[in-house]
Each structure stands twice: as structure tokens, then as C-alpha cells.
Write a structure and sequence with these properties.
171 residues, mainly alpha, 9 helices, 55% helix
Length: 171
């Protein structure tokens, strides 16, 4: 899942737009909801994701690099690339806070990043903070049932053991 860019984008954008989502306001998710300030948070989560990949010996592609190669976009800043992407122009925001953008992407993405970070000794303070905020808002524990190293059977393997498992399928 380190190449899945949904969680680093969806969780921060959704959490920081919960007010309008909770009111069921009409707005364009990426064009209106992906602001310059929120973009900085997305980039910070993405940097943590990239640090995890590098700790496993993988050369990651950043979200900015992804947009440079996947879509015809304009601008230097991530928010400019996202908001100039015509493929995203008409995507509307969810009408409920109970959205897959939180309930799927958080336990399968940010929880996995956080757990992997603890396994590898790589700090993930932004992922951890977003998880804690979501836990408080939704009165749940997203790690419970999420993709943790324990749930995946990877706890205690460290970087070498996880790399070996990825190559051979053997723990």
C-alpha cells in the first residue's frame, strides 16, 4: 500500500472539510476543498509515506511527481496541480461524514503507515495526529481492525524481514 496515494490525499482533505461535508454543502472536492493550506498537510503526510518506502529500500514517487506524469496539469505547487486537473473538475464532495474517504482510507492507509513507522523506527507524527483526530471525531479506534503490522502478520520482522517476505512470501 505504499504506492496508494488515496489515503495521503483523502484523509487530510476530508477531515479539514468536515464542516461543509457535515452540512451537506455543495462543493467541488478537489477544486474547492484542496486549498493551499491543506496541500501542505497532504505533502507532509506524503513525505512520511515516502520515508517509509525509503526505509524499505524502495524509491517512492511523490504525489507531486505522480501528478506531473499522470495528468496534464499546471503550476509548481501541489494544490495548483490538483486544481488544474480537468479530470477532477466536477468531482463533488461527499454528502456525509460517514464516507469511504475516511472509513476505508484511514484504516487501510494512515493506520498502516503509522504501524509500519513504529515497526521500522520511522516517525509518522502527521499520520498519527490525523488518526487521533479522526478517532475523536468519529468516537472509534481506526487501528482496531485496521492494517497494522500485527494484523498483517508482519510485526517484529523489521525492514529486512518485510523485504524478504515481499520477495519470497516467507516470514
Amino acid at each position: 500500500g505504499l504506492d496508494n496515494l488515496n489515503a495521503p490525499v483523502h484523509v487530510p482533505v476530508t477531515l479539514l472539510n468536515l464542516g461543509p461535508i457535515d452540512r451537506a454543502d455543495e462543493f467541488l472536492y478537489y477544486w474547492d476543498g484542496f486549498t493551499p493550506a491543506i496541500s501542505k498537510l497532504v505533502e507532509t503526510v506524503d513525505a512520511e509515506r515516502c520515508a517509509l518506502a525509503e526505509a524499505l529500500g524502495v524509491k517512492p514517487i511523490t504525489i507531486g511527481e505522480f501528478f506531473d506524469t499522470a495528468y496534464p496539469t499546471e503550476g509548481e505547487e501541489l494544490w495548483q496541480k490538483v486544481r488544474s486537473n480537468e479530470a477532477y473538475r466536477h468531482i463533488t464532495a461527499p454528502k456525509s461524514v460517514n464516507t469511504r474517504l475516511i472509513f476505508e482510507d484511514l484504516p487501510t492507509g494512515l493506520v498502516a503507515f503509522s504501524s509500519l513507522g513504529r515497526e521500522l523506527g520511522v516517525a509518522t507524527p502527521t499520520c498519527d495526529a490525523l488518526i487521533q483526530v479522526a478517532n475523536m471525531i468519529f468516537r472509534t479506534d481506526f487501528a482496531d481492525g485496521g492494517r497494522t503490522m500485527e494484523a498483517l502478520g508482519l510485526a517484529g520482522l523489521g525492514a529486512d524481514g518485510i523485504q524478504e517476505y515481499a520477495r519470497t512470501g516467507k516470514r
